[in-house]
Amino acid sequence: MPNSDHDHHHHHDGEGQDPPSDMTLRVKALESLLVEKGIVDPAALDAIIDTYEHKVGPRNGAHVVARAWSDPAFKARLLDDATAAIAELGYGGRQGEHMIVVENTPKVHNLVVCTLCSCYPWPVLGLPPVWYKSAPYRSRAVIDPKGVLAEFGLVLPDDVEIRVWDSTAEIRYLVLPERPAGTEALSEDALAELVTRDSMIGVARVRTPSP
Amino acid sequence: MNGVHDMGGMQGFGPIAAEANEPVFHERWEARALALTLAVGAWGRWTLDASRFARERIPAAEYLRMSYYEKWVTGLTTLLLEAGMVTRDEIAKGRSTPGAPKSTPPLKADRVAAALANGGPTERAVADEPRFSPSMTVRARNMHPLGHTRLPRYVRGRLGTIARRHGAHVFPDANAHGLGERPQHLYQVRFEAQELWGGSNNSAVYIDLWESYLEPG
Q1: One domain, residues B48 and B114
Q2: Same domain for A113 and A37
Q3: ipTM, 2 decimals?
Q4: Contact by Cβ (8 Å): A147, A140
Q5: pTM for this one?
Q6: B116 CB near a chain A CB, below 8 Å?
Q7: Residue B4 lies in a domain
């Protein structure tokens, strides 16, 4: 990954500025107020956070991709009606109500963005990484997809068409990456281990596992 | 609104700062901010489109300076105030006004899983037939509404091709402003990179656009 400097903790919206130090206090005060007024239940807040920290994340999407690679009938259903096919595996709901899966091939590479805000398929990928919500990605993915991909270390041949999917409505897009060579013997679970979040956004390919 | 949130095609924001092994939240207040936004949303006092518009209304320089979840907290505060659910004084003090009535939260912990699993589908049945069909050429309208819209600047006035129909969906330009859902047919439209940006690179942008954003090409 580019610019993976661990020591700089915050990468908010590419501005390189930390939030004001009072954000902790500000949110604590807001939460106290809303609990006191009976507007929110603090246990419900905990349950929402637990869902996106521990239950819903890119492993769900990896399961979908691995199933599509292993089961041609599932793949056909996935490309025909992704919402229904993904629901077969138990995933769906908020920010994934209307899903479309776009397939990478040797001649077509797909890349997903939301130029207007941060739309992202939560049930299969979880909450988006900071870079996906940042000004640099949102601005450039549509005008310079090749440059964006190169920044992620992915250089595509000139004859590969890049299709950028700008999520302007409530339709959410998931990329079905190409199955890497040399994985014919792998089980569905082993295939799922290879599938990265970035490959399902379209900024990476799935790599052949090292022997 | 021609706001700074409409970033597609802008230049000068620098490189993309991807972070290896990024946590879901960098600080606990971010997790609380997300959860508060979803839990207060369960009151149904405003729509998802109105939430987006609340963030878009953050003044441009502030929008660019703020972190992602700071925008969420700011947008949520705006909506709470506008809906009359809290007062400015209460926000400033972090305490309820003495004697103010206490509500019952609509979203309880044991209903969170079901609420998230249900989500909020936006497809609706409409009586009218779709105006456009796949492979038709269309032009995105050259319009500059002052309110919320999901028609980005970078496609306005440009020619594209209908790639598929999505059925009819809630219309954000109305729904963000309390004007009802007013569902319209929604289309996936393909714009060649050459049409949008000039030059000749081998790429295209697919974007989902409502019928009233489009005219025959």
Answers
A1: yes
A2: no
A3: 0.97
A4: yes
A5: 0.94
A6: yes
A7: no
**A7 — pLDDT class (breaks 50, 70, 90):** very low
- The first and second tokens of residue B35, run together, are 């959860």
Q: Same domain, yes or no, for B54 and B72? A: yes
Query: What total of structural domains would you count in chain A?
Result: 2
Residues of B in contact with A129 (CB under 8 A): 18-19, 22
B32:A49 CB<8 A: yes
Query: Which residue of B lies nearest to A169 if distances are taken between CA atoms?
Result: B208
Please check whether residue A174 lies inside any domain of the structure: yes
| Residue range of the domain that includes B155 | 123-216
A86 and A158 share a domain?
Answer: yes
Helix (H, G, I), strand (E, B) or coil at B217: coil
> How many whole angstroms separate alpha carbon A172 and alpha carbon A170?
6
Which residues from B are below 8 Å from A119, CB to CB? none
State mean pLDDT over B50-54: 98
Q: What are phi and psi of B147, to 5 degrees?
A: -90, -155
Question: What letter would DSSP give residue B166?
Answer: E
Which residues of chain A neighbour B166 with C-beta distances below 8 Å?
98, 169, 171
Residue range(s) defining the domain that contains residue A33: 23-53
| Segment B205-215, tens digit of pLDDT | 999 999 999 99
Q: Kindly report, residue by residue over A173-193, the tens digit of the pLDDT.
A: 999 999 999 999 999 999 999
CA–CA dist A78, A65 (Å, integer): 9
pLDDT tens sequence across B120-153: 999 999 999 999 999 999 999 999 999 999 999 9
Contact B114, A133 (CB under 8 A): no
Residues A71 and A168 in one domain: yes
Mean pLDDT of chain B: 97
